[in-house]
Amino acid sequence: MEKQTGFRGKGKEQKTGVTGIWHRILMGVCCCLLLGVCLCRTVQAEPLSVDKEDGEYAIDVSMTGGSGKATVVSPTVFLVKDGKAYAKLQWSSSNYDYMIVDGEKILNENTNENGYSTFTIPVTAFDSEMSVIADTTAMGTPHEIAYALTFYADSIESKGALPQEAAKRVLVVAAIIIVGGGILNHFVAKRRNRDYTPHKKTGK
User: Fold this and answer.
1) Is the pLDDT reported for residue 89 higher than 80?
2) Which residue windows are transmembrane per the record (predicted)?
3) 70 within a domain of the structure (yes/no)
4) What does the pLDDT average to over 138-166?
5) Which helix (H) or strand (E) holds 192?
6) Which domain holds residue 155?
7) What tens digit of pLDDT does each residue of 39-53 get?
8) How buried is residue 78: exposed, middle or buried, by Cβ count under 10 Å (0-12/13-18/19+)?
């Protein structure tokens, strides 16, 4: 009887041991899956909330860092989407392929090789330096460079203040002047020809 009892106890211990092993394996698999989800999760920077209607505006921006050779256009396009602040940043170079803002990787929107690198980035701070990273391929081997951007809240104004918008207005005015001048010249020439055309003499 004692031997039989000992055998049953040993079998119970074996079952408990197997259950424990499977439990540890299951916990390990769950941890791996959770880690994979965390690593694959897309990091997104949180833009500031602004008290403005959704749309496009202009904002002044300054930049420090790097070698000082690269610059960004200022004023630049300031976007408000769902009450959140974004900026469409245009570089003076076409060699930047991505930027990183608060861990979020943002790709160059301009696919034209001869065009300037352009990025729509979240604005995470006004009137203070906002740290960003930009990757450049200008030296052959891609490498990341740290910059600091400062967006000035009191400079926000209508989109018409942008240099490209001003250039568009100049082109429109120039086109109107050219077309108007051409039309006026046509009528002046027509009037001149009519006034100086010799009249045919009629015989008596």
Assistant:
1) yes
2) 170-189
3) yes
4) 87
5) helix 163-196
6) 55-160
7) 444 568 899 999 999
8) buried
